[in-house]
Here is the input.
Amino acid sequence: MRVASIIVAAGRGSRAGSAGGVPKQYWPIGGVPMVAHAIDAFAVHPAVGDILVVIHPDDTVRYEAAARPFAGRLRPPVQGGSTRQESVRAGLEALAASAPHRVLIHDAARPFLDAPLIDRVLAGLEAHPAALPCLPVTDTLKRASAGRVTGTVDRRELWRAQTPQGFSYEAILAAHRAAAKEVALGEFTDDAGLAQWFGLEVALVEGSEANRKLTSAEDLAIADGLVQFRGGRKGPVMRVGSGYDVHAFGRGDAVILCGVAIPHHKKLIGHSDADVGLHALTDALLGTLGDGDIGAHFPPSDDRWRGAASELFLKDAARRLAARGGEIVHVDLTFLCEAPRIGPYRDQMRARLAEMLGLELSQVSVKATTNEGLGFIGRGEGIAAMATATVSLP
Ligand code: MG
Here is the structure.
């Protein structure tokens, strides 16, 4: 049983617009021209022999570039007519010499057909001269007039037709030849409609939700993103960095945590302002870049950082991330101390961090726990902080 496929790529759709004059059949989806996705699906299917693409006369160069990876697997392209119906007939006539038993007619605007769908259409042809992949209508359908709803349409008998539509080659060729002669006919928008007009019985087989028709520029952008996401070809990668710091208490009257001064009967000792939270977070950010730690960039031996506001360290790490094209997705900070109480200042700290890093409040988490009286933290000798930063990098 010889099975041929015809891919119709001759249209000049205006709905998707044209980016730089490139028709939508050749727009890249996941770095590959749309038409090449359909070619690939047929080329790898074991039952499909001849593959023929019907193209627009202006697209010869574009087609050759798109078809290059399939050299030897494709019949020479055929130039389409001014309507879809004429284009399909041109493809059918071009196959006359090889006379396949069955033909699958597909629109290039549906790049996501797959082997199970092709199998179902071919199975439908076992007992019928034509097979149409369809999906039920799930939305409630309304009838309306002049902006007012006038009724609800019974959707139980309604189906969404897709391609590839399968036919007995001889029968669909005869149908197209007859339709071309019939001057009174309007344009058939699909071959199943033409087959039915010719008196062929059309079997209904299950379509595929993934096999949607890409019509608008937005459809193309979504499809492109989907393929890139699946293939992992491009798109951002996520990285998570962690940081830890600890500072001891000394004599004083306030501690500075995340840039917020909290009254306390002690202060934290350090070369800078000893903002243990910002130090841990700075290390977490540097960790996402594999770019050393805070001590490497701002050594305590350097007098420039004596008493410095630690905001400077954090912002430096954020700049390093931005310079690599990265973005912070989320930061999470945990303080470990018996006192002072963090809770009353938590929201103030989150707001300050969001401000320093240019983030939404929802991207910033500040938490605290005691050490249950254990160890140096439990004895109230200092405060420790742990931080996690999640970033996306191109
Ligand atoms: Mg420190």
User: Anything to note?
Assistant: The chain is about 30% helix and 30% strand. The pocket of magnesium ion is lined by residues 245, 247, 270, 276, 279 (CB under 6 Å). Residues 57 and 120 are 33 Å apart (CA to CA).
